[in-house]
Fold this sequence. Notes:
Layout: E1 9-12, H1 18-29, E2 33-38, H2 41-55, E3 59-63, H3 69-78, E4 84-87, H4 102-130, E5 133-138, H5 151-171, E6 176-183, H6 189-202, H7 206-216, H8 225-235, E7 247-250
Parallel strand pairs: 1-2, 1-4, 2-3, 4-5, 5-6, 6-7
Helix pairs in contact: 1-2, 1-8, 4-5
Amino acid sequence: xxxxxxxxxxxxxxxxxxxxxxxxxxxxxxxxxxxxxxxxxxxxxxxxxxxxxxxxxxxxxxxxxxxxxxxxxxxxxxxxxxxxxxxxxxxxxxxxxxxxxxxxxxxxxxxxxxxxxxxxxxxxxxxxxxxxxxxxxxxxxxxxxxxxxxxxxxxxxxxxxxxxxxxxxxxxxxxxxxxxxxxxxxxxxxxxxxxxxxxxxxxxxxxxxxxxxxxxxxxxxxxxxxxxxxxxxxxxxxxxxxxxxxxxxxxxxxxxxxx
Length: 259
């Protein structure tokens, strides 16, 4: 399927690894030129080189931390008028509510709520003036069903969903959609880190814990990041202009609810 976005320009955050990287590749394969960012220069530059070699699109790599004002300025200086914005940031650490200080909550909100809001505010009105835009926030399945030990993430991600709800209904009249993708367990560094933490706490082999968790999943496996990237690219396409304000689970059926 031709997604109708060849020649468009996208910002993809946290694109050096995992789901952000998968989204960047899928957009590049659809002919979208990219500005990608991450905090680590080595993995970021390697991803940029690989995308250029495989797809031929223009890729600009910006080493920055988008949870800071300076980082966002660097990113937007490199791409002041994107057609597509994919926000993404690693989740805050797990733990117990009683152990979190207010500064822990502030850091979680800055990374997983306020930074996406700031990037949206900086780009959405230009998209509306030009008559095309796609904004996707990579959040978490915790928006639908809070996850034990991830209170910081639960709160920040749900806050972002609430903040985008009204704006999404305003922007769609100008052919600008705003949605969130809610990943379940995908085979990424983040998942492997949480499995390793569980294994240490239980004194078990991480491979055994991973196998048990995959077997207990309705799909019998973890997600492939390429699956996530393909869905992201579709939602950025001309075919998805009637989808907005949605928090869309991609979790292989793990969420048991109807709504």
